[in-house]
Specification:
The complex is a heterodimer of chains A (about 120) and B (about 110). Chain A is mostly beta strands and about 120 residues long. In chain A, about 0% of the residues lie in helices and about 50% in strands. Chain A has no helices and eleven strands. Chain A is globular, with a radius of gyration of 14 Å. Chain B is mostly beta strands. Chain B is built from no helices and eleven strands. In chain B, a hairpin with a 5-residue loop joins strand 9 and strand 10. The chains are: A mainly beta (about 120), B mainly beta (about 110).
């Protein structure tokens, strides 16, 4: 049973417009959420994160929104650039193992294509 | 400051052979995680280790798979008697706090 779901396998947007990637989770114990970006043949790269005590975190063109009551988070990229084309993974963590975040539960990813 | 290093990047094994995947965490990181990505799937957690200890192996298949993170040297993910279904990309990540940093992965192909 998937605890982290990314229901859109792919998304296509025009350069300069907003990209919105969505993620839903089922486990109310999750208290930390992350977005990773992955290019083919490379490992995932950490993008941005949010703690459950916040509802928004912004870093440059990237903003993550968290709606705890709906168990939903989203990643906004504004403006989108062709270099943003990649697979984006949402991940969640719950619990703290001796100071570390513990294991991350990943969604299946959304492939973003930004067209020039 | 080197990132997480994994080797080999590509590994080909025949059915029944053993596969050994190595992971060197980032300097100063004492927590290592292994993930597997099957074709068309997301990353699935396998095991979480600290130096000389397995903290969480809830994602590890019960047979043929083992992992270690010795006091000295890299973390090793070992797959005995590989089968075709083991073909996947195996990613290692390390952390020292919130967030995890991933290596480039080892792509295992079982022929």
């Amino acid at each position: 049973d998937q605890q982290v779901k990314q229901n859109s396998p792919s998304l296509s947007v025009q350069e300069g417009r907003i990209s919105i990637l969505n993620c839903d989770y089922t486990n109310s114990m999750f208290d930390y959420f992350l977005w990773y970006k992955k290019y083919p043949a490379e490992g995932p790269t950490f993008l941005i994160s949010i703690s459950s005590i916040k509802d928004k975190n912004e870093d440059g063109r990237f903003t993550v929104f968290l709606n705890k009551s709906a168990k939903h988070l989203s990643l906004h990229i504004v403006p989108s650039q062709p270099g943003d084309s990649a697979v984006y993974f949402c991940a969640a963590s719950g619990g703290n193992y001796g100071g570390s975040q513990g294991n991350l539960i990943f969604g299946k990813g959304t492939k973003l294509s930004v067209k020039p | 400051n080197a990132g997480v290093m994994q080797n080999p990047r590509h590994l080909v094994r025949r059915r029944g052979q053993e596969a050994r995947l190595r992971c060197s965490p980032m300097k100063g990181h004492s927590h290592v995680y292994w993930y597997r990505q099957l074709p068309e799937e997301g990353l699935k957690f396998m095991v979480y280790l600290q130096k000389e200890n397995i903290i969480d192996e809830s994602g590890m298949p019960k047979e043929r798979f083992s992992a270690e993170f010795p006091k000295e040297g890299p973390s090793i993910l070992r797959i005995q008697q590989v089968v075709r279904g083991d073909s996947a990309a195996y990613f290692c990540a390390s952390s020292v706090g919130q967030g995890a940093y991933f290596g480039p992965g080892t792509r295992l192909t079982v022929t």
